[in-house]
Amino acid sequence: TQLLEQSPQFLSIQEGENLTVYCNSSSVFSSLQWYRQEPGEGPVLLVTVVTGGEVKKLKRLTFQFGDARKDSSLHITAAQPGDTGLYLCAGAPAGTYKYIFGTGTRLKVLA
Amino acid sequence: KAGVTQTPRYLIKTRGQQVTLSCSPISGHRSVSWYQQTPGQGLQFLFEYFSETQRNKGNFPGRFSGRQFSNSRSEMNVSTLELGDSALYLCASSLETPGNPQYFGPGTRLTVL
């Protein structure tokens, strides 16, 4: 079974703190996406990482794709209450049409 | 470009009834996927359609079915509803190449009483 394991599952932090979310698999991915979902809404695409070792920055969010393209991380600097939500990594293992989602990380940032 | 639209947004049904949900993908996207999301199970893949053909299927009973039309619009149907079918049903569209990001609609919140 091809899985994307995310850690931690839950995270509750104070505003201004930094955090990192991890997404790991035993499969190689041609690319990985990160999404954020708010309650009652569909996930919203944040970023796509394609090249092994790639680092992408979106304001306070930094995304990294592992050298072997089997893992990724999301780092948030100086978290704000607006960052609260469910973070999901996702992708299609190389050579497959099956798009799979990670187990999710539920983040709550307290003011 | 208009985003993915889903109708209806909210639905209340009773056990034993059936329901049909609709999804219109982003223009030019030929792949449409459906997901069920519940608090306990997370995002569960139902099926994916590409060019009117079901290309992938998740582990759901045969009561869950879908189809895609020539204009890429898709519908999913759930027959003989059960209480456990209460969930947020999400539709996502993407370009045809595997691994392309998926763009989600707002979802249909189904409540089965």
Provide an overview of this structure.
The complex is a heterodimer of chains A (111) and B (113). Chain A is built from no helices and 11 strands. Chain A has strands at 5-7, 10-14, 19-24, 32-37, 44-49, 55-58, 61-65, 71-76, 85-91, 100-101, 105-110. Chain B is 0% helix and 53% strand. In chain B, strand 9 and strand 10 (103-104) form a beta hairpin. Chain B has strands at residues 5-7, 10-13, 19-24, 31-38, 42-50, 53-57, 64-68, 74-78, 87-94, 103-104, 108-112. The termini of chain B are far apart. With 113 residues, chain B is mostly beta strands. The radius of gyration of chain B is 13 Å and the shape is globular. In chain B, strands 2, 4, 5, 6, 9, 10 and 11 form a 7-stranded mixed beta sheet that branches. Chain B has a 4-stranded antiparallel beta sheet with strand order 1-3-8-7, with no helix packed on it. Classes of the chains: A mainly beta (111), B mainly beta (113). The interface between A and B is medium-sized, with 25 and 23 residues.
Topology (elements, then pairings):
The complex is a heterodimer of chains A (111) and B (113).
Chain A: E1 5-7, E2 10-14, E3 19-24, E4 32-37, E5 44-49, E6 55-58, E7 61-65, E8 71-76, E9 85-91, E10 100-101, E11 105-110
Chain B: E1 5-7, E2 10-13, E3 19-24, E4 31-38, E5 42-50, E6 53-57, E7 64-68, E8 74-78, E9 87-94, E10 103-104, E11 108-112
Parallel strand pairs in B: 2-11
Antiparallel strand pairs in B: 1-3, 3-8, 4-5, 4-9, 5-6, 7-8, 9-10, 9-11
| Number of contiguous helices of chain B | 0
Q: Shape of chain B from CA axes?
A: globular
Shape of chain A: globular
- Fraction of helical residues of chain B: under 10%
What is the strand content of chain A?
A: over 45%
In N-to-C order, the SSE pattern of chain B is: EEEEEEEEEEE
Radius of gyration of chain B: 13 Å
Ranges of chain B where pLDDT stays below 50 over 5 or more residues in a row are: none
Instruction: Describe the main β-sheet of chain B briefly.
Output: 7 strands, mixed
Number of strands of chain A: 11
Radius of gyration of chain A: 13 Å
